């Protein structure tokens, strides 16, 4: 009885391509194709060009996992973020992936949604896929879980703070500069009652932004009562609740600063819902400068913290362990949500008022 020949076709009837197919079509050895795929620098340039032309012609897709097993290199960098629904993070991921591709790496993304179990799942995936470095862009530390990555000798990079361990880098953000510019901008317009909507107190970045705000207001001689600080959560809903609180106090602020742009967008909605105008009744400033802020009406004045700059520093730090990454700067971007303070208390509705952006 004749033995059955093993099929080399897929379920759709197409011939399954492998490295041997490429080698035969290119007229080279399997070893040469392997070296070309792994970008070994000693391969003859003409041979390499021929192999890549054959790969393109055949539409061959390399099995990167198999290559990683053979070479011991996954050419994969991980990035862990906290909230994929916040537009700041997709912009950061795009910048990270662009930089990674430039240096021949792919990106594995994990989102924790501020959940410890999700963080554990992210770490497990990073280990299973043998990432060569992990950027922890959550603006906070989950040290017990990340100890697993550290124990494997995998380079990591954090924002603001990090465990003191080998192969761990920190990207420092200069929050003070942008927030100081924002407070000085409001003070120059004549604002003396300024409210602040913070982020989650567990996040170092949120606390750093609040402290920078309090330091900047003190520097220009503005006292900020505790009731003018609302402890939010970096969501649009939190920004909306913050405005409701700030408008309810006896002397509402004439200007509000938010710890991130999502809070500011929620604040814009709440201000409009209260029948007030921006900036005629209340001036508003966000933080991050996500792309959306340029297109809302009115365009949001905000503090730019470039996600692409953070991404570039993160990729550099992962590929150059032990070299301190460049500090990320912040700066004020003035658009149309800030103006001179109204002579009326926010919440009152006089018969007529000149728009502050025309004053």
UniProtKB/TrEMBL annotation:
Q: Name the InterPro entries on file.
A: HTH_LacI, LacI/GalR-like_sensor, Lambda_DNA-bd_dom_sf, Peripla_BP_I
Region of interest (Disordered), ranges: 337-359
Taxonomy, superkingdom: Bacteria
Q: Which UniProt keywords apply?
A: DNA-binding, Repressor, Transcription, Transcription regulation
Q: Name one GO molecular function term.
A: DNA-binding transcription factor activity
Known Pfam families for this protein? LacI, Peripla_BP_3
Q: Where is the composition biased (Polar residues)?
A: 337-347
Q: Which residues form the HTH lacI-type domain?
A: 19-71
Q: Which PROSITE patterns match?
A: HTH_LACI_2 (PS50932)
Q: Which Gene3D superfamilies match?
A: 3.40.50.2300, lambda repressor-like DNA-binding domains
What protein name is recorded for this chain? Answer: Transcriptional regulator
Q: Per the UniProt entry, what species is this protein from, by scientific name?
A: Terriglobus roseus (strain DSM 18391 / NRRL B-41598 / KBS 63)
